[in-house]
Amino acid sequence: MTRGAALAVAALIAACAPVSGEAGVAGTDGPALFVANKRGDSLSRIDLSSGTEVRRVESCANPHELASSPDGRHVALACYGGTSLDIFATDSLERIGRIELGSGARPHGIVWHDSGTLYATAEGRNSIFVVADPLGKAGLSEISTGQRGSHMLAVAPDESRAWTMDMGDGTVTLIDLAARRKIKSVAVGEEPEGIALSPDGRALWVSARGSDKAIELDPRTLEVRRETSTGAFPLRLAIRPQGDFGVTSNLEDGSLSVIDLAAGKVVRTIAVSGRAGAESAQQVTILFSDGGERIYVAETGTDTVAEVDFATGNVLRRLNAGKGGDGLAILDR
User: Fold this and answer.
1) Cα separation of 145 and 177, whole Å?
2) Which of 57, 142, 70, 62 is nearest to 99 (CA)?
3) Are residues 167 and 151 in contact, defined by beta-carbon separation less than 8 angstroms?
4) Which of 84, 92, 137, 202 has the most C-beta neighbours closer than 10 Å?
């Protein structure tokens, strides 16, 4: 079911409190990593040149996923503990807008498409929202998935289709964005959560944390093409910008499983965040750098982000952020 509405984005001018000990706004012009700190209700900017957190501001309650605008001037934050998508300037972390999605929304998965349209799941409403002109009049459309807990999201390059990972029902849902309607939902694996579409749009990969597998689906039919075993509890799945490899973030053993997408199988394991059961093993979101040379791993249990060299698997450094870092966005161009 589709609901169309035109809502104004409220200007929320807020003082951007610096990180303790910060002098001025150094580090706001170069490559940066942004971290949603879900246990600290805050948003961090990390200067990638120095590896230093140069800015941290208060956010909404329990922020989760992040998405950057096509021009790199803004990030949108999914306020999982509330009902809004909040927009911040990447240079100052000034909050410049709030888009309200309605009662019980609990937005989580978020994609800021190259077209400028913003997409987000509303887990509490079993739906996704399409936000046209998010920096302007913010026209909203809501599309029901009909599935409980629509959590993560992928959008086709041509914006013809979207896919959600519905944790409450253990399904993947295919949505026709042009018609603003759900096409179908299919059960996949045990406790599926992570989802990523190949850059060419020809393969949809999901990670099933309950069955320790990565599964390739046909994006148009949702038929399973092949499966491969991963590390323990693969919470997230990301695909390298080149489209050659995928990676799962394995929460229970602190590793990354590297999948050769052409072969459809795991070809190596990268040890990142510690032994199984350790607090340090609690890694969640993973993000590739724009060139695919680095992987950033949110180590939620230790309030750090690991920077991993993809070629060697070496952890190059650990970047300090706020409490419970989860969602990530990058600006490295």
Assistant:
1) 12
2) 142
3) yes
4) 84
Per-residue pLDDT of the chain (333 residues; tens, 9 = 90+): 433 433 333 333 333 334 433 333 455 678 999 999 999 999 999 999 999 999 999 999 999 999 999 999 999 999 999 999 999 999 999 999 999 999 999 999 999 999 999 999 999 999 999 999 999 988 999 999 999 999 999 999 999 999 999 999 999 999 999 999 999 999 999 999 999 999 999 999 999 999 999 999 999 999 999 999 999 999 999 999 999 999 999 999 999 999 999 999 999 999 998 766 666 668 899 999 999 999 999 999 999 999 999 999 999 999 999 999 999 999 987
Tokens describing residue 124: 């509490």
Rounded Cα distance, 107 and 197, in Å: 20
Cα of first residue to Cα of last residue in the chain, in angstroms, is 39
Q: How many CA atoms lie within 13 A of 71 on its CB side?
A: 7
Beta bridge partners of 96: none
Are 98 and 85 in contact by the 8 Å Cβ rule? The answer is: yes
Name 165's bridge partners. Answer: 152, 172
Domains and CATH numbers, the chain: 35-331 (2.130.10.10)
Say how far apart CA 154 and CA 188 lie, in whole Å. Answer: 16
The overall longest dimension of the chain from CA atoms, in Å, is 54
* Backbone φ, ψ for residue 21 (5° rounding): 90, 0
- Smallest CA-to-CA distance from 164 within 203, 191, 193 is with 193
Dihedral over alpha carbons 51, 53, 55, 60 (to 10 degrees): 120
Phi, psi (rounded to 5 degrees) for 223: -75, 140
Q: Nearest to residue 286, comparing CAs of 308, 303, 271?
A: 308
Q: How wide is the angle at C-alpha 171 spanned by C-alphas 39 and 277, nearest 5°?
A: 40
Q: Which amino acid is at 230?
A: T
